[in-house]
Write a structure and sequence with these properties.
By secondary structure, the protein is an alpha+beta fold. It is about 20% helix and about 30% strand. The protein has one domain: M1 Pyruvate Kinase, Domain 3. An 8-stranded mixed sheet has the order 4-1-8-7-11-10-9-13.
Length: about 190
Amino acid sequence: MPKLLSIQTACAQRIQINGRAILTAIHKLPVSGVVQALPLGLMGDEQADLSVHGGLDKAVYAYPSEHYPFWQAQRSAAGLTGIDDALPFGSVGENLSLQGVLETDVWVGDVLKFTSCELRVTQPREPCYKFNAAMGFSGAVRAMAQHTYCGFYLAVDEPGPLTAGEAFELVPGPRRLSIVESFQAKMFKHLR
């Protein structure tokens, strides 16, 4: 059964990217205990640019923990120093670090059914330049696009508490559009 390994939130803050001060909440940090999932996201979490993040259909961002070794290897290959320690959950900007559910398993409309909360899959994440900055190398967006390691956004259909460590069920939706198909179609136009 799939499992929620970790929950992360962040407040928006200004960081320097290419000499510019940019408002972002990509640097998510783990939180302990119960976290409420509300219609517009997790309690204590913010999104800086509401034109591309947040809202009812992008309330929560989930990411497969299985991809973390890939990102560690990519950072090492990019020659980043001081990366001997594993990347902590939240490093790709996700709210929920999942185990046992990859993008190839998920379709738009599927539901992650937790004990007291239901989250519906709405779309894949489209990475931007802030992801390159978060990973520390300029090829991160391209690597995400090439390997389809995008994660997915969730709508909160049934608000309620979430706790790291709890198992959940992936309930199939209509299965018309997979996350992989949706992501590849969106990224194709960007990588041409």
